[in-house]
Structure formats: structure tokens, C-alpha cells
Amino acid sequence: MTAYEIIKKKRDNLELSYKEIFEFVNGYLRNDVSDYQVSAFLMAVFFNGMSDDETEALTKVMANSGEMLKLDSCFNNTVDKHSTGGVGDKTTLIVAPIVASLGCVVAKMSGRGLGFTGGTVDKLSSIPGYKVGLNIDEFLDIVKETNVSVVSQSEALTPADKKIYALRDVTATVDSVPLIASSIMSKKIATGSKSIVLDVKFGSGAFMKDKKRAEILAEKMLTIGKRFNRNMAAVLTNMDKPLGFAIGNNLEVIEAINLLKGEIIPDLYEECVTLASVMLNLSKQIPLDKAEELVENSIKSGAAFEKFREWIVAQGGDISYIDNVEKFEKAKYTAEILSEKTGYISEMDTEQIGICAGLLGAGRENYNDTVDYSAGIILDKKTGDFVNRKERLCRIFTNDKSVIQDIKDRYIKAISFSDKRPEINNPIYKIIF
Ligand code: URA
What we know:
Helix 1 runs parallel beside helix 3 (about 35-50) and helix 6 packs parallel to helix 12 (about 250-260). This protein is about 50% helix and about 15% strand. The chain has a four-stranded mixed β-sheet with strand order 1-4-5-13, sandwiched between helices. Strands 6-9-11-7 form a four-stranded antiparallel β-sheet. The chain has a three-stranded antiparallel β-sheet with strand order 10-8-12. Helix 11 (about 210-225) links the parallel strand 4 and strand 5 (about 230-240). The two termini are about 40 Å apart. The chain folds into three domains: about 5-50, Up-down Bundle (Transferase, Pyrimidine Nucleoside Phosphorylase, Chain A, domain 3); about 70-325, Pyrimidine Nucleoside Phosphorylase, Chain A, domain 2 (3-Layer(aba) Sandwich); about 330-420, Alpha-Beta Complex (Aldehyde Oxidoreductase, domain 3). With about 425 residues, the chain is α/β, with parallel strands linked by helices. The chain contains 18 helices and 13 strands. The site of uracil has 6 residues, from helix 10.
């Protein structure tokens, strides 16, 4: 079948076979199929969707387009985690060493931040010396030594996803459930862990704002993962407020260290305990309640923090920063944002708060922009808190003095107040297996 016929078939809402999807995607990789033809195809998928068989086929073709790690033949109890991205989401830094301290193996590839959400690779890069760009042998050596390593997404894996994602980004076709599911799952399948836990976020600070759509996406990814014989679970989490109190790269590393040292940070603690327990449950078949007990004990006993130290050292990070967080680079300018009203915080426009952190220097708008590791926000008040006029809502940190007034105005607009205490949502909405 020609590329034209494949596009026409999808346009007419007919089901494509594995062979047709294989030919189309591989033709694109060889440059025999053009950008404009793939753009038309993606738009047809955007409107007509894809069946589970088609989504599985696209996932398989993209996963097979580059190297595939056979983690399962080298390690037992391999477990990966994927977050669809949120503001202040530093859970990987916390759950990876927790489950590694309990005998799971976490060999994880992560992305850099783009837009209003941060990326794990940027957070880890804010630790002086930490190497994110290891080759596959170096990566696996660290996993052998410590049970845990997190590196940036290797160029050798899933080149088809990389090429198609870049096109989706400029053709308004990112927001499609089968395209998102196949993109995420192709990377997870190629990385090779036997168990995969998906943290699918919804709400004002998530990429998927709507809870129902987040649930549909989670179900689709579970279906695809199971077809590749993976143990799958999805945790649906609420992103109506930032996760924890720190937003920005080294500020989030410090918050993660504080939690690993035993500080109970509301919402962040519950979410990390849940994610780590589900990872342990899936990979070692430990009942959830028992897994939760083991996870909490790993934090309390210091085992998780010790594993974190071991991992960071193995990956070249300067341990003196982990042991004395005061050493982390501090931004040149800091300012306080004070409340203009008295009342309960009823809502936070979390995407806007993520944008504020980005404008302070913590994020990037374009893929090749650099980030300022010391920039960001430390919240004092979150949804449900009572605040008096002139009381501090947050502190902001930046090396660019010129943005401060704009951030103050944006932040104030992002916070809504009411006279009555609003209902507070549990950060965990649902776990689906
Ligand atoms: N993250 C991905 O890796 N792919 C998508 O399509 C969306 C988010």
C-alpha cells in the first residue's frame, strides 16, 4: 500500500494493519514518506482515533525502531515509573531509591522539562557532578552496583517516536490519546522493565486537565503494556495544586532530600508512598498494605536516604551537597509575594504557577534553552490554607531581576480565595491495575 492509500484509509476511519503502520512509519524514518504526509496521517488519527490493535502496532513499530534494552535478562524485579508531568513533581528522586533499597531494580530514562512542567533530568543535573548522559554500558554498570540509575533518554532508543513527536508538536496533534499512549509506551517497552507504574495526573497543573480523559489515557496505556506482557498499574493523581512546596530544580532536590531524611511533607509524602508501594507490589508481588509498611520503614530507618546517597555517588554527584544542602547554588535575587486578600485559598491555577517558575529561570520554552538550577518558588500557602492580607504566600528565587514584578502579578492572579474552607482533594484519586 502507498503512503497515500494508508493516509486515505485512516481518513476514512478504517482500521490499519500492523504491516501498513510498519511500512508507513519506517518509510518516514527512511525519508520516503514526507513530513506533510505524516502530518496528514497524524491529523486523521487525531480525529478518528486508533483501535487497541492499531495503538499496539504503532507502539511496537516505534519501540523496535531503535535499540531495545533487555533488562529482564540481566536483572530481577525491574520496575519503571512514568509521570505524565506536573508542577513540583519530584517523585522519581524519592521513589527510585526507596524501592531500590527494598530490592527492586530501577533503570530509568527520563526527559528534560519543557513548558510549564519540570523534568527529572534537569533536577538531577542541578546536583554538581551528576552525569545524566551516560552510555548504555555505563548506565547498566551503575544499575548492577546500586539497583538504581536515572539517565536522560538515549538517542539510540525509539528514534521513530522522537521524529514523530517533533512533528506532532508543530501540527497540534500532541493531544491524542492513542498517540500519547503509543509514544509513552514505546519508550517504556524499549527500556525493558518488566513492571511499569504510570503516574497519570489530571487537574490545573497537569498536561491532561480533565479527570475522565486522564482515566481513558491510563486505561489505554495499561491495555498496551499488558499486550507486551508487562505488569502494569496506573495511579491517577490530582494536580490541582503544586506537589510539595518547592518548584524549581535544586529547590526540589533539597525537598526530596528532606523527605528521604524523614520529613513528612503533606501530599508529596502520601503520593510517594503510594507510588513506591505500587512499584513494590507489581515487581515483587508484595500485597499493597505490606508494601506500604515496607516503604514507610525504608524512609524511617534511613535505608532509602542511604540508597539515594549511593546512587548519586555512583553517578558522579558531589555527595557533600547531599549531606549539606546549604551548599547548593542560591539565586541572586529573592522576593516575597504577599497576599492581597484575607480568606481561604480555594483554588490555585497550577499551570500558571508552573509558568511563573519557568519565567524565573527554572524551565525552558524551547528544547535547547538552558535552565537556571537555583531559580524557582517555595510555597508557604496552598489550597485550603487560611491567609491574612499581607501574609506571605510564597518566596521566589531568580537570577533575572527584571522578571520579578511580572511574576508577582501573575502569581497573585493565579490564586483564588473564598470565605469558606474548600473541600480538599486527596492527591491520590484512584489506582488501576
Ligand atoms: N510524553 C510523551 O513521551 N509523549 C507524548 O505524546 C506526550 C507526553
